[in-house]
Amino acid sequence: MTLTNRYKRIPLVQIDVPRDERQRRVVDVDNLMPSIKLRGVIQPIIVEETGERYRLVAGERRYTASVKLGIPDIPARLASDLDPIERQILELEENVKREDLEWKDAATAIHRIHELYCSLTPEWSQTQTADSIGMSQSNISIAIRVAEEILAGNPNVLAAPGVRAAYNIITRHDDRRLGDVMNDLLDDKPPAPHPKPDVPHALHSISAPSVPVKATPLLESIINVDFLTWVQTYNERPFSFIHCDFPYGIEIDRSEQANSEQWGSYLDSDDTYWTLCKVLCANLDKLMTQQGHLFFWLPSDIWRQYETLEFFEKNAPSLEFVRIPLVWHKTDNRGILSDPRRRARHVYESALYASRGGRLIVKSVSDTYGAPTSKEVHQSEKPEPMLRHFFSMFVDEFTRVLDPTCGSGTALRAAESLGAGHVLGLEINSSFCDGARTFLRKHRNLRALDKRKIDDTTQPLHQSRGA
After folding, report:
1. Which pTM value belongs to this model?
2. H or E element that contains 348
């Protein structure tokens, strides 16, 4: 490539713009014209001599702004003997240096520059591209990696606010995928030793079955079974995301405000809450992958939250909890009013989440979400939009989801809507289980119908009906 050190002012009428080869189709110069009108063109355009005329290589915005302002000539740097690839590189390098260039366009331009250099010199490196553009090698690597996902149509990357945020999304995804590969490799290994919690003697048989039983393939994603019974014989692949909505131990089954006669009831004693927590911790190694997440609903009472965190810290030290809860605000203001003369109505619920093995999240979301209550199957069910909001931090196509007390199944539906690779729910109440299965099948059918409609609209127009 020959880019000379010859500069001259060239009349605009002698410059040809090869519109059919230019990469930029729409040239917006409104924000550039005031500066050129005041100071003139400071940075020369690049042109190639073609006999007595000149061919524009880079600087179309400065050229167009000058034409619109009626300026007769423009400073230019001369290039000679450029082949088509060299012209593209010059134009792209010029574009990358624009301050107003949108980050996606900048990333894809850098990616294209590197590709073009590699086509000219197969051993070309990212370091050489960085030197050519005048950027750091790390920034070039980030831009190229982000551009690959942009060109692949990655929706999370396309929705990112900037190149750094997009890169963080990509690295989290790569790390989670690597973690899942490691989880798969570790599945065949004996589980690591895990401290046994202080559990009543009768529960020790639950946490450590004497004869492992090979589970048969599951025909249903929701099983009518008690978690305490099921965990004794479960010996299949562990899960990378466990959603726990255990009974809170607040005696909701005895409250008139729960409408148990209409919606059915479940045991909600303090002993139930702690027994479920103990069995979860005692069996964590068989239930959760070495890298995973736990999502845990619990009473909003700060003392119960403290007790719960202290319990998990002692009995499941591999879980690293975030000590700021996620909050669901019930926007319809429905909630328990325990003492109308002394207390406010309680209209929010909170959850804690923890990572195991340093597993990264998919993306960050706000830690509060407002949604009205919903009651399709269960008196204490969580609304699917709220769960989908919070689950988007943890669930992607690599995620295996377990909900040991799934109730209405909204957590499973939310996870599947986010593309979870596998979901499994357990529900002790047969009526709740039947309702949860019905709604899960309904939502699966609706998603399949939506997908079919999308596929139909993308079929080639020339495809014959009989094909």
Report:
1. 0.60
2. strand 348-356
- Eight-class DSSP state of 221: S
* Beta sheet of 239-244, edge-to-edge order: 222-224, 422-427, 400-403, 239-244, 288-298, 348-356, 319-330, 368-371
CA 451 to the chain's CA centroid: 21
DSSP string, 405-421: T-TT-HHHHHHHHTT-S
- The candidate with the shortest Cα–Cα distance to 292, out of 247, 328, 246, 243, is 243
DSSP structural state of residue 401: E
From the list 381, 396, 388, 390, the residue with the least C-alpha distance to 439 is: 381
Cα–Cα distance list, 129 to 20, 62, 396 (Å) = 27, 25, 34
The low-confidence residues of the chain, meaning pLDDT below 50, are 1, 21-24, 189-218, 253-254, 256-265, 461-467
Contact 367, 327 (CB under 8 A): yes
> Which residue ranges form the domains of the chain, and what is each CATH number?
2-170 (3.90.1530.10), 205-454 (3.40.50.150)
